[in-house]
Amino acid sequence: MGGRLVRRLLCSYTLCMRTREELGWAFLFLLPLLWTLVVAFGYAFIRAVYFSFTEYDLFKPPSWVGLKNFNHLLEDSRFLLALSHTLVFSAIVTSVQTILALLLAVVVNQKLRGITLFRAGYYVPSISSSVVVTLIFAWLVHRRGVANFLLTALQQYALYLLVFAGAVALLHLLQLLWERWRWKAPTRFFDPLLLLTSLLGAALVTIGLHQLGVLRPRAVPPMEIAWVSTERTFLGVPLPLWSIMALNIWTTIPTFMVIFLAGLQDVPKELYEAAELDGAGSWQKLWYVTVPALRPVLFLVITLGLIGTLQMFDQVAVLAGLAPLDSIITLAYYIYWNMFGGGGLPRVGMASAAALFLALLTLAVVLLQRRFGISEKGVL
Amino acid sequence: MSSREKPVGVPFRSRIYLVSAAWVRRRRRTRLLLIYALLSALALVMIGPLLYAFLSSFREDALTWPPEFYPQKFRPHNWVGAWQLGRQGSGDGWLGGFSAGRTVRFTLVFRTASYAANNRAPEEAPTVMLLPPAAGMTTDPRPDIQASVALLEERSSIQERVYEVRLSHAGRLFHDRVRLAVRVPAGWQLAGATLWPALISPRVSETVLTWQDITPGVLGYLFENYLRVWTAYRGPGDKPLFARWVTNSFFLAALRVILTLALASLAGYALARLRFPGRNLLFLSSIFTMMVPGQVTMISNFLLLRDGLFGISRLFGTETLINTYAGVFLPGLVGISAVFLLKQFFESIPRELEEAARIDGASTFQIYARIVLPLSLPAFGALAILTFHGAWNELFWPLIVLRSQEMFTLPIGLMNLLQYYGAQAGTNWNLILAGAVMAAIPVLVVFLIFQRYFIEGIKLTGIRG
Q: If you compute the radius of gyration of chain A from its CA atoms, what whole number of angstroms results?
């Protein structure tokens, strides 16, 4: 009796009405989300686990086979190939794109006239759809494409580049000696004025040597590698996969550049000023100020990069028509291939088992990030 | 001037050096110059390939070695020629065509320098041949068109000959496209033409010049690849497929935007403001879903659609939801990241506004519709753009659900195009590129207009995972 009275007193009429009303609305508002979570996700997840223990070809009802699929998976050379491709792909792409995106973000994080135009321009590879970019890329690296032409030119003019680089270094050192010891000027190593004169001087030297006939382009046969449709390998990794790596790095850098840029704009300027007073150069500022200050963002970018590359599918799907399957297959595509592309009946059990494996990999990455990463600003 | 300026202290190796202001200024300016050079070089790497692809999408052959930066397609005298021939053929200088009763004349200038060396009969002249309207066809070489060649002028001093080709339409049908080949003795060089041929193929005994359309009109000439992709790639029922894919993509993306704005905002509002049991559980499980790859749920969801959602679809008269647009939407009805984005935004709206309305007796839905929604328009705008972008580019799920060509969205259609043209000898990359450019344009336009929202969205969804 007494308890009910107290509750009555605490819970004024309007408040109780309000919670009841709210409950109804909340349920209504959340109904579509619940549908997605419960049916399209929860039920689907449980079914995927169930299918991974069965043999199922979409026509006959599934039959329980225990751990057989997982055993098969570990014996399937194509799965192991897909797994190794995925791991190599993930490691290389994530590390390269993280470093390059950070450098790019540092470069565009300046207050210059027209810098937003450059930022927008750099961002274009990320907004185009993966299919569009993959098609364009496949055309670039075609056997008679621009990439091969440029590589041929690079071979032809390799000596020119060497001479140019050597001349830049030599001229720069000479100028530095002159400025620092002759004039006792406070000239930094990468003094812009000196750098410009070295570059121009080296260009003149190279052109002059060409005119004199000392330097001649080398005669090399045109490069004719069909980058996306060959079985050749480099360092044990198929060339088509290397191509997809290059493609993926190119299209992901801008996204991460934007995330880094957001982080960079939060780094207090005082840190840089202090470092400058201590005599830090550009690289030292990058390494001792920027990178530590960006640690949370760095972890986020690495995690996003790992997850994205582990689940990479689109590029492989587009190129699957051109490339030999074993040269480009990744985990995500292996799952799809088992379901829809196998030539023969779908192997739902194998696909499910491989999908669980992929989920496990992703989960491991997230857990590692939570263990070592610094969770800030609502980072997952 | 500079001598009157005060010297400036410059820190270097834990000492302060006094230098003239001009010394510092010169260095600052050069630094700026170098930075802009670096930025431009980076721009070349990042968007150079895309720009080059865009330019190549206009060309007759997108795989030339060495790469051509000023192909015949971009030379204004050919545009003039295309206009003139279009005018002659049908009176339409833009899109061209060949109407009945009309006559088309164009000139060709050949350099016959190696002609004497070849020791041929001097009366040997070019011959004109009409080709069937499409590359693979064998019938209909336009029988109602008569072609003739006449020598207009012989400039013996420079060994040049000027010919006029004359085509007259004696039939009654309108031809939107007239393909033509002119064969000349081997060794003759084309030195000038009203309209440069699409293809010059030198052979042992003769050289063949080919025009894909001799009365193209300016637009027909410049956008030849685009028009071909748009109209010539046909599916069952002889309907052009590309236009259909563009419509499908627009329709699906628009529907996706509307659905997301409506449903994700409701869910986001509930998660941000309403109290109900299991709120945290719902929140955590939503986060969990974002970590699980789409391939895991794909299998079950595909079966779900195949069986028509436990047979519910039979009530609406369809046995299965595979190859339907409902199937594209139903499993991922609400984007989880969209829900989070809006939840975060709603939490930033001051609660007092809603409390005040509550005291005035407004219901939860009224508060949502009258107070929260109007305040959230900027967030809705950003989300709409992000969602459009995502839906327009999405490949994985539509690829699984949509099966027949006329149901495809653009990304799947492009893959289809690649399979079709890529299987043929490598000369059709121009068409594939034209298709890719057309698929990229809507998103690029949206990006150019709403650039800021894109960047904000990346930050939000990026930070949110």
A: 29
- For residue A344, the model assigns a pLDDT of 76
- Confirm if A40 and B333 have CB atoms less than 8 A apart: yes
What phi and psi, each to the nearest 5 degrees, are found at residue B306? -60, -40
Distances (CA, A) of A351 to A316, A340, A342, A355, B359: 17, 10, 11, 6, 56
Res A15 pLDDT > 80: no
Residue B249 structure tokens: 């993509």
For residue B418, the chain A residues in CB contact (below 8 A) are 135, 138, 318, 321-322
Position A1 pLDDT exceeds 70 = no
Q: Tell me how far apart the alpha carbons of residues A369 and A216 are, in angstroms, rounded to a whole number.
A: 53
Shortest CA distance to B54 belongs to which of B75, B74, B80, B38? B74
Torsion angle of C-alpha atoms A92, A98, A99, A103, degrees rounded to 10? 150
**Percentage of residues in chain B with pLDDT exceeding 70?**
92
pLDDT of residue B450: 85
Which residues, 6+ apart, have CB-to-CB distance to A184 below 8 Å?
none
Q: Do B454 and A366 touch (CB under 8 A)?
A: no
Which residue of B274, B334, B395 is in closest CB contact with A36?
B334
Neighbours of B458 (CB within 10 A): 22
> What SS3 state is found at A190?
coil
A189 in B contact zone (CB under 8 Å): no
Q: What is the per-residue DSSP string for A301-335?
A: HHHHHHHHHHT--HHHHHHTTTS-HHHH--HHHHH
Partners of residue A142 in chain B, C-beta under 8 Å: 63, 426, 429
pLDDT, tens digit (0-9, with 9 covering 90-100), for B342-351: 888 888 888 8
- A-B C-beta contacts closer than 8 Å: 321
Are the C-beta atoms of B100 and B178 separated by less than 8 Å?
Answer: no
Distance (Å, whole) CA B192 – CA B189: 9
Find the Cα–Cα–Cα–Cα dihedral B323, B327, B329, B332, rounded to 10°: -130
Instruction: State pLDDT tens for residues B124-165.
Output: 788 898 888 776 666 667 778 888 888 888 887 778 889 999
Q: Which 238-257 residues of chain A touch chain B by CB within 8 A?
A: 250, 253-255
B275 touches chain A (CB under 8 A): yes
A350-359 confidence digits (pLDDT tens)? 899 999 999 9
Put simply, whether B294 touches A (Cβ < 8 Å) is yes
- B303 and A37 in contact by Cβ < 8 A? no
B29 contacts B42 by C-beta, under 8 angstroms: no
Task: Round to whole Å and give the CA distance between B86 and B220.
Answer: 9
Q: Residues of B numbered 422-461 whose beta carbons fall under 8 angstroms of chain A's beta carbons: which are they?
A: 422, 426, 429, 432-433, 435-436, 439-440, 443-444, 447-448, 451, 454-455, 458-459
Token look-up 């580019």 returns: B393
